[in-house]
Amino acid sequence: MPLQKLSAFIDAICRFVICNDSSLRGQTVIFNPDFFVEKLRHEKPEVFTELVVSNITRLIDLPGAELAQLMGEEEPKLPGGIGTASGFFRSLMSLKRKDKGVVFGSPLTEEGIAQVSQLIEYLHKHLRMEGLFRVPGNSLRQQILKDALNSGVDIDLESGEFHPNDVASLLKMFLGELPEPLLTHKHFQAHLKIAGLMQFDDQGNKTSAPDKERQIEALQLLFLILPPPNRSLLKLLLDLLYQTAKKQDKNKMSAHNLALMFAPHVLWPRNVTANDLQENITKLNDGVAFMIKHSQKLFKAPAYVRECARLHYLGSRVHASKDDLDLLTSAGSKELQPLKSQKRSRLDPSHREETQQRTEEALKELFHHIHSMPDSAKKKKLIRQFHKHPGTLTPGPDAPTPPVQRRTRSRSFSGLIKRRMLGNPLILERKSRDSTPESERASKENLHLLQRPPESPASHGTRAKLKLSEGRKEDSRKHLQALAPSTKEPSV
């Protein structure tokens, strides 16, 4: 079926890329690079048109009237003073043909493109024919083929009844009988400006060398706002002419020769002659030749338009032009700022309290677990770890403070454990500085009591309190005795 063939052509436009998402790495994903562009075009045409036109005006100078014509707000002003209103009778006849289902002379539709695609598919197989599109075909066979296309039936072009020149001439006839050129009247002034884009020298003076990069970019943007049927048929046509020009050593048809054959049907306004175009005729023909040579690049949306459309749907900020895309490189580092802010938000007071509570519960479970273990070397080692790293009993999100800084006494369970097991930090420091064999022996005895499993909770608590109080009194008494001789005056 013709619609099936058309869908095959459309599917061929989509490309295969590898998704760089780390979660999908190693998997091949079928993806249309212009997916978000097409989605934006269909769902939000006003936003899409504003995005594209703003970038077109960045590349070419369009005064108010010409910009209004491009936007469809004013009637296009064509060369020779001819406007689209003069073609009223022609448009009325085309509407009557459309109602009858006639393909030739009617506005473009998907059904009409499906019929014409049969001609394009056939010509792809006969690109080596010398004088293709230049040598006319048989008028009688062309009329038979035209009636068959208007009736909407499938045609067997491979039967040998028709010649490639018949099919090529009929394709040009179809384009010539369209109510307006394939590139539309609204875009005529824009194409003239694109054909005049030239490079500049180091002094800023315009040269005679075409600025191909800007021309390609402008055509990519301009093709994006073509009506969908026009864009679909233009893609099929330019691809056919590109393949034909590649075989110019056989068919003698270069891109320039093909542009002379198709510019009047694709770009020239209707009801104008070469005299009306005057000096613009060379620009228009060269413009069509340029489209043929670079047709493989013209139907891809510019990278910044793709990025703008993607960001529009992914909830990020939308960039208005190519200049804004340059900020993406620096914005990559700024994307890490939300992550940093999330980390900082975790340190709010409510989160600190929750973290402290969980830490105390974990330490409580760890403490009971260690003391419930039977006497062993492993148990002794774990208890030594408590002595070596007292700060781990009460961790917090703030930075560690100097060990000599006086802190308020914690009433939490973990603080009680630390005070009972390790004592006051200042007293411990003095013990380590003024330690004696007897005090070391007392500390070992206290450690032995802690390592021994308790007989009962009440007796163990009472015994631990008595032992700690006696140890502290003994230590303070010895400390005072050690300091007493230093206070006496030296004898003569």
TrEMBL record:
SUPFAM superfamilies: GTPase activation domain, GAP. This is Rho GTPase-activating protein 19. CDD domains: RhoGAP_ARHGAP19. GTPase activator for the Rho-type GTPases by converting them to an inactive GDP-bound state. PANTHER family: RHO GTPASE ACTIVATING PROTEIN 18,19-RELATED, RHO GTPASE-ACTIVATING PROTEIN 19. Keywords: GTPase activation. The lineage of its organism: Eukaryota, Metazoa, Chordata, Craniata, Vertebrata. InterPro entries: ARHGAP19_RhoGAP, Rho_GTPase_activation_prot, RhoGAP_dom. Residues 332-358, 388-492 are annotated as: Disordered. It holds the Pfam family RhoGAP. The keyword NADP does not apply. GO terms for cellular component: cytoplasm. One of its GO terms (biological process) is signal transduction. The gene is ARHGAP19. Residues 106-299 form the Rho-GAP domain. GO terms for molecular function: GTPase activator activity. It comes from Chrysemys picta bellii (Western painted turtle). Residues 345-358, 428-447, 467-478 have a biased composition (Basic and acidic residues).
